[in-house]
Design a protein that fits this description.
2 helices; alpha+beta; Pemi-like Protein 1, Chain: D; two-stranded antiparallel sheet
Length: about 90
């Protein structure tokens, strides 16, 4: 874990503001769900992604296939990936 050098105070309601720079780097937008974990004296925040969500489209469908541990792709995501590979490669 590395320090960003940014410090924020907790307000009277227990809230903190995530700096814009961090939200931008982690692609966190307004109203995105955030998971909160604790580990010893640390509070860990992680952008929430539903289990079995397609890594390309974000869709959670029963048709999604797991291609590696935790790597799910929906039928639409597979089409997008195939087209992108086709557009950028002479192999297909």
């Amino acid at each position: 874990m590395r320090s960003t050098g940014m410090i924020r105070k907790v307000d009277p309601l227990g809230r903190i503001v995530l700096p814009k720079e961090i939200r931008k780097v982690l692609n966190i937008n307004e109203s995105d769900p955030i998971e909160i974990f604790t580990e010893n004296e640390y509070i860990l925040l992680k952008k929430y992604t539903p289990q079995q969500a397609c890594v390309i489209t974000g869709e959670v469908l029963k048709e999604n296939k797991e291609f590696a541990p935790g790597l799910f792709i929906s039928p639409k995501g597979a089409e997008i990936m195939f087209q992108k590979l086709k557009d950028t490669s002479d192999l297909l």
